[in-house]
Queue: 2 jobs
Job 1
Amino acid sequence: MLRAEQLKKSYKEQEVLKGIDLQVKAGEVYCLLGANGAGKSTTINIFLNFKRPSSGKVYVKDIDVNLRPQEARKHMAYIPEVVMLYPSLSGLENLNFFSQLAGYSYSKTELEQFLLSAGLQQGAIYKRMESYSKGMRQKVGIAIAISKNAGALIMDEPTSGLDPKATNEFTEIVRSFSAQGRAVLMATHDLFNAVNIGTHIGIMRRGELVHSLKTTEINARDLQKLYLETI
Ligand SMILES: Nc1ncnc2c1ncn2[C@@H]1O[C@H](COP(=O)(O)OP(=O)(O)OP(=O)(O)O)[C@@H](O)[C@H]1O
């Protein structure tokens, strides 16, 4: 579903990505770890076509993101660290707006159902988003991803600032998202959550993907050890 091939990115003389190869297949959750500045966000931003690579390719469903960005965008949903939707609109109105932008026209019942399946409480659906917590805003972001029928969900530090209960709810939603055969790529500093939620883990150091492993091969304690030895 998502593939990077020999991805490189340089700013002037600084090479911040040094040939990243990674794949996220349908149903997989790939967690990208690494110290500040390792290149996680740059990798994600190239997948989203927010940044251009200096060389190498990224593909979504075999679509070259740089060559066919409009088509690639249809298959991807992005949830940034801070979900910035329209604060004066309700969760349902935001979802309606963004799903229409993606070319869909849903009934009120269908929109409600997307929000409920993303874990938003019924009572919040018609409230203005300015009153939402970060966890609630993320749920609207996930509902938008579901409504777009996106095969791939890309997230940058989704659990930062979430309390343990919200993190747990988020984990369950991402699990059900991947169980529907969708791919998830996320950058995170949360090692415990990465082992918990991920099917695969990549550890980056200074623009290189130094380790790429399955979460079935490692527990949280060993991952922490490996991480600290790596960075
Ligand atoms: N526009 C830019 N101009 C110059 N250097 C940049 C630019 N954007 C990113 N960088 C550099 O690229 C490197 C990788 O940054 P990136 O944001 O991808 O790291 P990260 O792993 O996501 O870090 P963090 O965990 O802090 O979010 C850093 O050294 C950063 O300073």
Job 2
Amino acid sequence: MLLVGCGKMGGALLDGWLAARTVDHVVVVEPQGAFPADAGAAGQRIVRCAGVSRIPPGFDPDVVVIAVKPQVMDEVVPGYAGFVRPGTVFLSIAAGKTIDYFTARLGADAAIVRAMPNTPASVGRGMTVAVPNAAVTPEQRRLCETLMGAVGQVAWVEDESMMDAVTAVSGGGPAYVFLLIETLAKAGVAAGLPEDLAMKIARATVAGSGELAARSIEPAASLRKNVTSPNGTTQAALEVLMADDGIQPLVDRAIAAATARSRELAS
Ligand SMILES: NC(=O)C1=CN([C@@H]2O[C@H](COP(=O)(O)OP(=O)(O)OC[C@H]3O[C@@H](n4cnc5c(N)ncnc54)[C@H](O)[C@@H]3O)[C@@H](O)[C@H]2O)C=CC1
Ligand SMILES: O=C(O)[C@@H]1CCC=N1
């Protein structure tokens, strides 16, 4: 594997792959980001290079993971055209950047998978949605499935235009959930709790609810109803949150804004 960019998301994936022992030989091109502390554990060979020109000559990766910011793509991607070979698949995790964007810079023969993971991949609980181009072989698709599946769930789509909304919902989704922790804690403080207790119970509540949602076969709406006693305290809160001007129109607007931004990042 060749990993280009080892920042927050590339690093989260690499952490997950190393922990799951999905990869054993990785060349990482990373000029300045954090490098995993356990890189080079027994049987794993991790080589860090400061730039594309430092990649060991003859290195022939089966997969090139592109994990740099969309804003630096123009200067980074053309440098990897030399790695386009029948046996190599490019796996991009960049927001917005389309398959056409990559074929314009790597050539029409390049096998490209456009994927959108999220940071819970670092603890094996990621969600990745991916779309392949026509040059991707079944074996390469399986390889990408194995990589993404090692750090969480995987869904494939055929319609690339869905990736903008996917980016908005699951790519950025963890940020909204962490914001929910912050807002719950702040509201707890406003209701009279000390800050540390408010943060502790907000964090544990979101984490516990996430775990319950992950393990339960019940729809989210039933899990919600299980908490809501008729005329009880939760109902009082939900009447605010589920009002016409409650959380749904707000989240609709947030997701629409992120989806639009993903489309803008395409060019
Ligand atoms: N952070 C997240 O939750 C998610 C991010 N993504 C995507 O992942 C990509 C990376 O995002 P983050 O990890 O958040 O950003 P980041 O800034 O943490 O990581 C990018 C890394 O690329 C490195 N870099 C810069 N120029 C480079 C070059 N020429 N060659 C190799 N590496 C270079 C930087 O030093 C940095 O460590 C973006 O395209 C983003 O859209 C996708 C899903 C979720
Ligand atoms: O905010 C971003 O643009 C990236 C893509 C999804 C999560 N982080």
